[in-house]
Design brief:
Blueprint lengths: L2 H18 L2 E7 L10 E4 L5 E3 L5 E4 L8 E5 L6 E4 L4 E6 L19 E4 L9 E4 L5 E6 L10 E11 L4 E10 L5 E4 L5 E5 L2 E8 L12 E7 L6 E3 L14 E8 L10 E5 L2 E4 L15 E6 L1
Parallel strand pairs: 1-7
Antiparallel strand pairs: 1-4, 2-3, 2-5, 5-6, 8-21, 9-18, 10-16, 10-19, 11-15, 11-18, 11-21, 12-13, 12-14, 12-16, 17-18, 19-20
Length: 297
């Protein structure tokens, strides 16, 4: 092999090696050392993130620079910021102490129901993810007229999915002092499945005997960036997939039109919660989810 061919081969191997370099990691419970499934992982201040799988493993397809910081959150655990120190990261999350001060248990004798933010047949607008682990939330304030039906009974939402049985998480979040989404009300995840097509999905909350907190509650939808939720459009004539830009992670969730600023929408983006009542030129203004919440006595 001559010198020129040898140098060319070395260059090709170096490029190939770089292409396969990745940042990987594992999220575990600090107390039990067991894997924490479906953690939400963001690169701080960047539109880049992923979801851990059911074994707690996560992957970024390229190497993250060592000056970056990851923000890891998961229901039931304290949020953590971790510096990128190498191509493999082991992250320990501390179990969160779920406050029960606003959770009231009563005898299950429910009869009356009150529906807030009722769904209708309009599915003109939906909001989805192309590979970042967004959460979108809608705020439901508490009102004096709700005293006769104080319990959280059911969440309903409209999903649109190109695949069967797309998995997602719903969360109930407390309201912070500055009015943003805060800690989880429940210590357990609300895992749900969206059927293929445009469907109404309902989640029963009655088993938890949760009372609507005095400050109200945020109902939040979390995308799971996992392989089985991945969908890529294909050319109907050739059957070949289009460019990677056509990849989505199912499902999409029904939302209000971008110009509508009256529905208390929030999005968890780049590791922080932001109100979607911003300029219509901003992409996050599209994240105004429409959730239906049922209260009962």
């Amino acid at each position: 092999m001559n010198k020129k061919a040898f140098l060319l081969l070395c260059l090709l191997l170096a490029v190939a090696g770089t292409g396969f370099a990745q940042t990987k990691g594992l999220v575990v419970d600090k107390a039990t050392k067991k894997p924490v499934p479906y953690a939400n992982i963001w690169v701080e201040n960047e539109n880049l993130g992923t979801t851990g799988n059911e074994k707690g493993e996560f992957l970024f397809p390229s190497v993250l620079p060592k000056d970056k910081t990851l923000i890891i959150s998961c229901l039931g655990y304290e949020r953590r910021r971790v510096s990128v120190v190498g191509n493999y990261l082991r992250v320990e999350l501390t179990p969160a102490a779920i406050s029960l001060q606003e959770v009231t248990v009563r005898k299950n004798t429910r009869r009356q129901k009150r529906i807030l933010n009722r769904l209708d047949a309009n599915t003109e607008f939906t909001f989805g993810s192309n590979g970042v682990p967004w959460m979108v939330a809608q705020y439901f304030p508490n009102q004096p007229t709700y005293t006769a039906t104080p319990f959280l009974d059911e969440i309903a939402l409209v999903t649109s999915s190109n695949i069967k049985n797309a998995s997602f998480k719903m969360r109930l979040l407390q309201v912070t002092e500055d009015g943003k989404p805060g800690q989880d009300l429940l210590p357990v995840p609300l895992l749900a499945v969206a059927p293929k097509g445009i469907k109404t999905v309902k989640l029963d909350l009655s088993q938890y005997n949760l009372q609507l907190p005095p400050k109200g509650v945020f109902v939040a939808f979390e995308w799971l960036i996992i392989p089985r939720n991945r969908y890529q459009n294909t050319d109907p004539e050739t059957g070949l997939p289009f460019a990677s830009s056509s990849v989505s992670y199912e499902p999409s969730v029904r939302s209000y039109k971008p110009s509508d600023k009256a529905h208390n929408g929030w999005i968890y983006d780049k590791g922080q919660w932001l109100s979607t009542n911003v300029s219509e030129a901003e992409a996050i203004s599209l994240a105004k989810p429409h959730f239906q919440l049922t209260l009962s006595d």
